Amino acid sequence: MNHLPLIIKREYITKVRNKSFIIMTFLSPLLFITLISVVSYLSQLNNDKSRTISVLDQSGLFKETFQNTDEIKFNVLQNKTLQESKDISEASEDYGLLFIDNFSKEETDNVNVQFFSEESASIGVISDLERIVEKRLTHLNLQEKGIDRQQIEDATAKITIAQENFKGVKSSEIDGWLKLIFGGAAGYLLFMFIIIYGNMIMRSVIEEKTSRIIEVIISSVKPIQLMLGKIIGTSLAGITQFVIWLILGGVLMTIVSFIFNIDMSQTQTPQQELINQAIQNPDVNIQAQQVWSAFSNMPITNLIIAFVLFFICGYLLYSSIYAAIGAAVDNETDTQQFMLPVLIPLILGVYIGFFTVIENPHGTVSTIFSFIPFTSPVVMLMRIPFGVPIWQQLLSLFILIGTFVVTVWFAAKIYRVGILMYGKKPSYKELIKWIKY
Amino acid sequence: MSKLLQVKNVSKSFGNHVALNNVSLSIEKGKIFGLLGPNGAGKTTLIRIINQITIPDSGTVLLDGEKLQSHHIQNIGYLPEERGLYKSMKVGEQALYLAQLKGLSKTEAKKRLKIWFERLEIGDWWDKKIQELSKGMAQKIQFVVTVLHEPKLLIFDEPFSGFDPINANLIKDQILKLREDGATVIFSTHRMESVEELCDDIALIHKSNKLIDGNLLDIKRQFKSGIYQVGLIPDSTSVEVEIVSKFKSAPAFFKSINNELKLNINLEAHQNPNDLLMYLTTKGQVTNFVEVIPTANDIFIQTVNNNN
């Protein structure tokens, strides 16, 4: 008799109706958004404070150079000694004092520029100041050598290398970034999903053991049915939660940024900034076109199919291991010794993905790891946007499915014996013995 | 009488540990069968094999003459010793779920559950959470779920543990009623008084071997030792000495309202109880004359000790 639908339904309903699950589902996006808002608000607040910097220019060559900006106000001092300037700056509680020593126009590469402040200055401010001074000095150098700045600007060339593969498919720099975002997001999503919902499966197996209902259930249902039912039911609950998170997160994000007028893009990871820099081309029109063509250049159909297949297989592979771990132990504290071997390949997959795939999506390391079953779902998902030959994808999927079948078989064995074992913390040796029972 | 369950030469070992060694049993239809044995004897392994939870290394199990198959699950109701319920589910939906796993349709399960809940006086628990129930209350639900699909074979492992005397009695009556309705019951317990009260046949398993099995009364007959418990208000003080010299006897202890002489008299092969009774009537007033029948408890302890 097939009880699988019944088990899946029960698992799903009890998971979804569980109070802490509901709270987590609706509170997490709220907390997340609040956190982001607070962080971005605070960082804005931090930057909003306009700083006053006193400038003592003894060369007299920087008169027009220091223009006030939103962030920095310049207070240009005149006819003061360095000591007097320092006193003034300190007394008026300035951010600091920029001191430019006198120099001759012929010796611009040896100018004494100093910054005095109460506390050590922020790196951002210093590099801003450096840029301003450098620009002015370069300008002076050019003047000295009799070169017009306009001429330089006219002579500066800018090119974008048009990329095209041998089959004639055009691509651009943005392609690379977009592919990376897609691959990275897919791989990372799988990673998160496995960790969150794998644990949930494990806990639900342990719960059945500790509540002692397992023997009642197992006298009506085959253990493998119960295990698969649990995995599928919990995963469906997980997908439900994920979808709610995405929708709720999106809606809240829009509302928050609308109401508080907070620019969410202010909080950026360095990677995002890199991407932004790559995208910051002057010509916006060409830009949009490039993004669009990058989109259409990606193997979208392949991407979606591969995402679904690798996601499902990878997730099932890991969740069956989680289920077996849950069956082997009596309580959650005993799971530690078995968790590490599960997490290592997973984390390895993510790191390999982020470091080697960026470097070279078709390099030896990333290719090999996209075939090893425990890392392949993550690594392959990251590689696919860059175009992986179909035979490689199929081979990797084939290996993954094979491993999945073997793992489920082993997990079911451990599960079958483990769920009826109470009171002792099994060793690896014992687990191997269970497989032979 | 036809056999409902036949266990033939079943062996099972876990690694180096032998849990069952060539055990054979047969259980007749409509009987209550007591499966006895000390802790760790292999009872639970045997029960799990009958429930197809564990697969035997060798040997076969026949239910109604058919080799055990997965569809037989519907014909067996099993109340394990380690039993529990999903803590976060409500009583009603949980019972429905478990009944459906046994192959009942939802509507049928609901109908039968209502009847059983009324019968056990738990009708108003339907929407309660398991967490709110006491252990005894949860046991009642488990009992209902075990018998709900009206299986041919019921297996109860320590069914009375956790029940107060009133509820234990309620459950006992239900078990007897189920047998009257045609169910066969396997009953595993350490409580010998309930074996005495309920079981028709028994088997004793010790250290993975079956030591005895058969009809409880037959076994008692085998184990009887010819001891009679006697109470006598003697005519003279010399009577006691006289009896002790004539018969193998030992002091006996039982409750009575007189201050009489109490003895356990062990008759030898050539002596017979009528002669003893006749002899005693000449020596005083007989207040008590009972053949000492070995209790299940005695049989259990004696057999296990002999095999240690």
How would you characterize this protein structure?
The complex is a heterodimer of chains A (437) and B (308). With 437 residues, chain A is mainly α. Chain A folds into two domains: 52-147, Periplasmic binding protein-like II (D-Maltodextrin-Binding Protein, domain 2); 172-436, no CATH class. In chain A, 67% of the residues lie in helices and 6% in strands. Chain A has 16 helices and six strands. In chain A, the strands form two sheets. Chain A has a four-stranded mixed sheet with strand order 2-1-3-4, covered by helices on one side. In chain A, strands 5-6 form a two-stranded antiparallel sheet. The two termini of chain A are 25 Å apart. The model of chain A is unreliable at 264-271 (pLDDT under 50). Chain B has 308 residues and is α/β, with parallel strands linked by helices. Chain B folds into two domains: 3-221, P-loop containing nucleotide triphosphate hydrolases (Rossmann fold, 3-Layer(aba) Sandwich); 225-292, Alpha-Beta Plaits, CATH 3.30.70. Chain B is 34% helix and 29% strand. Chain B has helices spanning 43-50, 91-101, 106-119, 135-147, 165-180, 192-198, 216-223, 239-246, 273-281, 296-306, and strands spanning 3-14, 17-28, 32-36, 58-63, 66-67, 76-79, 153-157, 184-188, 201-206, 209-215, 227-234, 248-251, 261-266, 284-291. In chain B, strands 6-7-8-3-9-10 form a six-stranded mixed sheet, sandwiched between helices. The longest helix of chain B has 16 residues, at 165-180. Chain B is elongated. Chain A binds chain B through residues 1, 3, 6, 10, 14, 18, 207-208, 211-213, 215-222, 420, 422, 433, 436-437, and chain B through 14-15, 48, 51-53, 70-71, 73-74, 76, 78-80, 82-89, 97-98, 100-103, 142, 145.
N-to-C span of chain B: 35 Å
Q: Multimeric state of these chains?
A: heterodimer
Rg over alpha carbons of chain B? 24 Å
Give the largest chain-chain interface (CB within 8 Å).
Answer: A-B, 24 and 30 residues
The low-confidence parts of chain A are 264-271
Total number of beta strands of chain A: 6
In total, the number of strands of chain B is 14
Order of strands, widest sheet of chain B: 6-7-8-3-9-10
Number of domains of chain A: 2
Which descriptor suits the 3D outline of chain A? elongated
Number of helices of chain A: 16
Biggest pleated-sheet summary of chain B: 6 strands, mixed
At the first level of CATH, the class of the largest domain in chain B is: Alpha Beta
Uncertain residue segments of chain B: none
Please trace the helix and strand order of chain A, writing H or E for each element.
HHEEHEEHHEEHHHHHHHHHHH
